[in-house]
Write a structure and sequence with these properties.
Outer Surface Protein A, domain 3; 13 strands; elongated
Length: 181
């Protein structure tokens, strides 16, 4: 059995969790999320905690046991506290902005044209200044995927460190070939 899957999920006071067969809904102060569990997995509410157990002992059921528990836990945490990713942009002339009235993140990161990244529904994006971008939302997968796709536009390179990186991420710097001589 999965070590992660064995752990029960505590339900915070402000969160309501409804389980109807394989359908799990979590509603909290920040919003509402829902998912459908795989047929190999059983989800129950016992004593104010959610317990996930595999129905059969097949390889596939064991594989989905921990995954299902992690997805439900992400839902509960998302509707109660939410998720946040912060990006830093480093480089001369590199900047990010959000035009008023539009759901688009504009990036100038060394290409000939500005990059336009449409912001998905359910995600809030703010630019504190031109070098810092904050991405918030209740769905961990959406927040992480959008942050990763923005970072992938121009990931920080190891020679000068120019590009987009997560806040707190350490870029291992390399020595240039001209300095080695």
């Amino acid at each position: 059995m999965s070590r992660i899957g064995k752990k029960p999920i505590p339900i915070p006071d402000k969160v309501k969790v409804n389980i109807d067969g394989q359908r799990v809904e979590a509603e909290g102060p920040l919003g509402k999320l829902e998912m459908t569990a795989r047929p190999e997995i059983s989800v129950e509410n016992k004593d104010g905690q959610i317990v996930v157990t595999p129905i059969t002992a097949t390889r596939q059921a064991r594989a989905f046991h921990g995954l299902t528990r992690a997805l439900i836990n992400n839902m509960v945490v998302g509707v109660s506290r939410g998720y946040e990713k912060k990006l830093e942009i480093f480089g001369t002339g590199y900047l990010a902005s959000i035009p008023e009235g539009k759901k688009v993140l504009q990036l100038r990161v060394g290409f000939a044209n500005e990059i336009q990244c449409p912001i998905p529904d359910g995600i809030e994006v703010k630019c504190r200044d031109q070098q810092h971008v904050e991405i918030k939302g209740i769905d961990k997968q959406k927040v992480s995927q959008f942050a990763a796709s923005v970072r992938a536009i121009r990931a920080a390179e190891p020679y000068l460190g120019k590009g987009i990186k997560y806040e707190g991420e350490v870029i291992r710097r390399k020595e240039s070939k001209a300095q080695k001589k």
